[in-house]
């Protein structure tokens, strides 16, 4: 089968690998030039990724996991930076057994592009921006050059601002939403200090500050990429070098000392937006063509659970399952794939919820105590797993994670009630014994 | 001030009247030809409107209410048609004091277009489809002809599938949703019977059938326009004349006998879609231009509360208030107008909720009994008003309607509790008296 994928980003390239392995002829159209020929890169435009089990599982199926891990740095927990400079480390799992993996988006994209183009049957057309898509005729149009292509199967892997989805949205019956947070993000850098990491490279660093926060992820060159998640009005208010320095000196004093390029980075790096996208259905089939969506194009989420790319990679695994079950009948496979929305709706919500946890609650005593209790339960109770662990270190479907967490809470509540009942019974017996005595 | 309005539908024409009265120069761009020159009309494409107080209030401010009322038929209540042909009438207000007004969209649009074009400073450009809008330069482009216009103030009154909104949606930070029901609508007709109305013309007729329903509104030519609101699968399933006749004979037997053109109408009339649109913000201001949205373009709702046009007309009144308060400073007025979202969000939800009520609960004994209690309370308690009455027969802001309904429920609950307390006290006293005796 000939399959057209729009977008040669992370998910587009990975999907091309899966489909080529199944014997399909894949053409990837990408609006940007070949990243392997670019020098500039995407400085200040993309959050570092935290690859975890769902992403690694997808890569493992293509034997790409070792290559990718070699370019990544494991982070076994969160390092919280209090305003007074105090540090506290919270392992992501009991005993720090599991880690998430920091990797730059550009590096990962290059690996996946290499992997895809090395496969027979995959070709990539760079500098092709989709300007038209007619599912009734099975045609695509591109700028520049105005070329037209025909396709019976089109999969949009073209991200949160998907051009393929823009076409679907115009069809009656396609429900859609884009919800922006009132927050922007901006990237900054903590360079290596005398050739060494300036902070512990084995952790994801968080500076929770109530309404806003900063995070930092390590890079192989021993720098850290920092990302501010601030309300737009705060971001806009720091409009002079003096204000930038004064604000960081007050709110992020330990990081401020490690950021010699702060003022220039703050001035030059753009403000990114944080959007959650929902769309239903994700596909349309006509006699001429089937058009579907995958990854961020189908369900962009905010980055606060570190699951955007992991979820997109898992989409590829799930679509492969749907192809297995339908004998590579793409219209039927894309119909089956719609069931995944139950899972992507859950992670979209968890990602939003986790922003509040990261910027606000994660620094509190109650939160830290809760995490300690959770890890103790993980050690003591066979089968008990925290939500974070189920999301990040298993491939349990997201919706099933939520059902399991709810079950575990009921058990814990029942156990607590049981203990309380026993205590009261004991007390009653004691009182009676004394009354009788 | 020169103001450009995109869309010469109901709200666009009414807004032009309001703005021209304030001394502004208004240009209306409309993609369709002049409806006054058309013969065909929009058969089968638009639900009859039920004009109620919010719409009439807006028309009254322009002294247009008498003209419009003359073309409308008052409906003082709902006439429910049971499957066995049994009828029951529910007045919309206590004693049938208030009525909503059935009017065809095309007739109303012509009246408003006449009113707008009769005013100095208003001009209309028909056959102009908006194809481009650049708020950074203050330019608009139109098809056919490819003309470009400049504008400092652009207001999109171009409906649920607004082209102006499509431009706003592409700006980062503009949250948006379109939610389709799994239901379609299709129009049919009950012609006059021997020159007379075939049903009571003083009511809105409803055939509630659980998952689906039909309604009928009277027309001045003594016909009724019927609208089916059915699940898409049901609409698609009736694909032969036999199936259409059999289905109507079974589910709508009394109407079936009054619909000689049923089979042709069912076959020829298109299926419409039911969408709820939300957008935030509704406007954007640059140094070159201010672009805003009004009516369905800003907040399309489903038709089940009869408030779509009424809400759009009330938008015009509210925008006029904002212009009053800002001295006709459009950027500031449109910023103030954003507060109206609190009201339009409420009516969007009520319209969705009312679908369930109309198709399902409206025929039940519990519902009828509830309505009787409500009307009794309206007669007995000073100030008590049902939600339907507040929405349809007052201009109380929608959000305030909800707060008032909540207050009334608390009072009623407290009164009920008071009565129960009194009863229990009496019982206790009685028991004590007997025990003492």
Tell me about this structure.
2 copies of one chain form a homodimer. Chain A has 16 helices and 19 strands. By secondary structure, chain A is α/β, with parallel strands linked by helices. Chain A has a 7-stranded mixed sheet, with helices on both faces. The first copy, chain A, has a 6-stranded mixed sheet with strand order 8-2-1-12-19-18, with helices on both faces. Chain A has a 3-stranded antiparallel sheet with strand order 3-7-4. The longest helix of chain A is centred in the C-terminal third of the chain and has 39 residues, at 398-436. The radius of gyration of chain A is 24 Å and the shape is globular. In chain A, 40% of the residues are buried. The interface between A and B is medium-sized, with 14 and 14 residues.
Question: Can you give me a brief rundown of this structure?
Answer:
Chain A is 43% helix and 24% strand.
Report the mean per-residue pLDDT of chain A as an integer: 91
**Major interchain interface with per-chain residue totals:** A-B, 14 and 14 residues
- Report strand order across the widest sheet of chain A: 6-5-14-15-16-13-17
Helix content of chain A: 40-55%
The poorly predicted ranges of chain A are: none
Q: Helical region count of chain A?
A: 16
Number of strands of chain A: 19
By secondary-structure content and strand pairing, the structural class of chain A works out as: alpha/beta
Q: Classify the oligomer.
A: homodimer
What summary fits the major beta sheet of chain A?
A: 7 strands, mixed
């Amino acid at each position: 089968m000939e399959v057209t994928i729009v977008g040669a980003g992370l998910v587009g390239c990975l999907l091309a690998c899966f489909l080529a392995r199944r014997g399909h002829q894949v053409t990837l159209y990408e609006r940007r030039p070949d990243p392997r020929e670019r020098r500039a890169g995407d400085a200040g435009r993309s959050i570092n990724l935290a690859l975890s089990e769902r992403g690694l599982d997808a890569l493992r199926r293509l034997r790409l996991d070792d290559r990718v891990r070699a370019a990544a740095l494991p982070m076994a927990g969160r390092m919280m930076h209090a305003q007074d400079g105090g540090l506290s480390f919270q392992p992501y799992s009991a005993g720090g057994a599991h880690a998430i993996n920091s990797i730059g988006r550009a590096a990962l994209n290059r690996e996946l592009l290499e992997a895809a183009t090395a496969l027979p049957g995959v070709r990539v057309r760079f500098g092709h921006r989709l300007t038209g898509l007619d599912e009734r005729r099975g045609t695509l149009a591109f700028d520049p050059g105005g070329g037209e292509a025909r396709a019976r199967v089109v999969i949009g892997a073209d991200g949160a601002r998907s051009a393929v989805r823009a076409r679907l949205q115009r069809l009656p019956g396609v429900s859609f939403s884009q919800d922006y947070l009132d927050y922007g993000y901006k990237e900054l850098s903590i360079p290596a200090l005398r050739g060494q990491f300036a902070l512990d490279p084995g952790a994801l660093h968080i500076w929770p500050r109530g309404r806003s926060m900063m995070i930092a992820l390590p890079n192989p060159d021993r720098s850290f990429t920092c990302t501010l998640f601030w309300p737009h009005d705060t971001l806009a208010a720091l409009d002079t070098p003096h204000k930038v320095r004064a604000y960081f000196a007050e709110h992020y004093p330990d990081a401020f000392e490690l950021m010699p390029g702060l003022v220039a980075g703050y001035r030059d790096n753009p403000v990114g937006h944080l959007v959650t996208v929902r769309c239903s259905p994700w596909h349309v089939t006509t006699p001429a063509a089937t058009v579907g969506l995958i990854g961020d194009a189908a369900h962009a989420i905010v980055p606060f659970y570190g699951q955007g790319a992991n979820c997109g990679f898992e989409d590829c695994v799930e679509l492969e399952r749907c192809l297995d079950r339908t004998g590579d009948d793409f219209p039927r496979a894309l119909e089956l794939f719609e069931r995944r929305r139950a899972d992507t709706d859950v992670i979209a919500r968890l990602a939003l919820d986790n922003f509040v946890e990261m910027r606000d609650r994660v620094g509190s005593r109650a939160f830290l105590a809760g995490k300690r209790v959770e890890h103790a339960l993980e050690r003591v109770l066979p089968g008990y797993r925290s939500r974070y662990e189920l999301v990040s270190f298993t491939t349990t479907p997201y919706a099933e994670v939520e059902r399991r967490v709810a079950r575990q809470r009921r058990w814990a509540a029942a156990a607590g009630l049981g203990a309380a009942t026993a205590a009261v019974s004991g007390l009653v017996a004691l009182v009676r014994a004394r009354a009788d005595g």
